[in-house]
Write a structure and sequence with these properties.
The protein is an all-alpha fold and 376 residues long. It contains 16 helices and no strands.
């Protein structure tokens, strides 16, 4: 699933750029993904907490695959937006659903480190997905490059069919506000929104900036280095978060995040590209998974679906607004100024996080609630 996601995130902006579409419109098309993902949130939490997780996961995988094949056979902006929205429905549900299933499998004292390990499900996709997608597009064309993610998600459907996850027999799908949004996870979701705004320019425009503006070789190696560091940093930061506290483990992540954005504005060589690959893994790569751990840690056990949904509401808002804002900044101020301005939401994220933790006297603990045992 994530191979398809990271291939598409890299291919689509470059494909649109080749169609001679402006940076702002590229940001709009890319951001459409988050509009649907955000629109599904009112139903995602109740569905996850009350429905058959396996069946729901497979249905959403089918939508993702259909969207990927759809990209391959259309070239007009309205149809691309349609399939981008369809893609957002599938990923919008399955991202929160996967996070919930992983949390259900973990003991409380190993939540951050366990979710760090779970977060590595995207590491190989991060390492090889963008490079493979770009290589296929250059050699065979964008149609084949878009079909490849669709085929990979079809494989994921067959794998998912073997999962043994059942719905608790006495739970129902109830659409209430407290089942849609976990209020205890709202502030951590705001932190995720600010971090998503800070990384939006890098995620959306990095390949165009490196290959077309700076003309620096080695973008494929960038993703491999990034993933190699993620393999080490995500479980390490998760372990530190369990031992020291999530807010303390985030300090080096925020610093690496900021250094990454600053170096992007002055880079001129391949070794600097590889340096930002390391900093990106240490910064943005660990910040998101640690924020997710925080959202899940403060939520009650029977609200994990809603907590996962709330976490992704924050990401969705950042991913929706970020590419559009960053595209407008590129058109008016240039790439370097855009990356510098991304430091503002990152600083707001760090400051608000530590004010909240200090006001609460630490990370607040949820009330213990008995959760029904799943049916065999």
């Amino acid at each position: 699933m994530f191979f398809g996601q990271f291939m598409m995130s890299t291919l689509l902006p470059k494909y649109l750029s080749n169609l001679q579409i402006g940076s702002t419109l590229i940001g709009v098309v890319v951001g459409m993904f988050s509009i649907t993902a955000l629109g599904t949130r009112p139903v995602t939490g109740p569905l996850i907490d009350g429905s058959n997780k396996k069946r729901l996961f497979i249905i959403m995988l089918a939508l993702i695959s259909a969207a990927s094949f759809g990209y391959a056979f259309v070239s007009t902006i309205p149809l691309l937006i349609f399939f981008r929205l369809l893609h957002g429905i599938g990923m919008g549900c399955n991202a929160a659903l996967g996070l919930t299933m992983a949390t259900d499998a973990l003991p409380k004292e190993k939540l951050a480190s366990g979710l760090g390990v779970y977060g590595m499900s995207s590491v190989l996709a991060t390492a090889f997905g963008p490079g493979i997608g770009l290589a296929v597009a250059e050699r065979f064309g964008y149609r084949y490059a878009f079909c490849l993610p669709g085929a990979l998600v079809l494989i994921a459907i067959f794998i998912a069919a073997g999962m043994k996850i059942e719905t608790p027999p006495d739970r129902k799908i109830v659409f209430r506000l407290d089942n849609i949004v976990a209020k205890e996870s709202l502030l951590p979701a705001v932190f995720m929104m600010l971090a998503s705004l800070a990384r939006a320019g890098m995620v959306t425009y990095l390949v165009i900036y490196i290959t077309e503006v700076k003309q620096i070789p080695g973008i494929s190696v960038y993703y491999i280095i990034n993933a190699a560091v993620l393999l080490i940093s995500r479980p390490l930061v998760g372990t530190l978060a369990d031992r020291w506290g999530i807010h303390k483990a985030l300090i080096p992540s925020y610093l690496a995040f900021a250094a990454n954005l600053i170096i992007l504005t002055v880079m001129t060589s391949t070794w600097q590209l590889w340096l930002i690959a390391v900093l990106n893994a240490l910064g943005t790569g660990t910040t998101q998974t640690t924020h997710q751990s925080l959202c899940m840690k403060v939520a009650r056990a029977d609200h994990r679906g809603a907590a996962g949904t709330t976490a992704y509401i924050g990401i969705d808002i950042g991913d929706l607004c970020g590419p559009i804002l960053c595209g407008a900044l590129v058109d008016h101020l240039g790439y370097e100024s855009m990356f510098r301005l991304c430091l503002i939401p990152l600083a707001l994220c760090a400051v608000s996080m530590f004010i909240w933790v200090r006001a609460k006297g630490g990370i607040p603990e949820p009330e213990d609630v008995e959760v029904p045992v799943p049916a065999e």
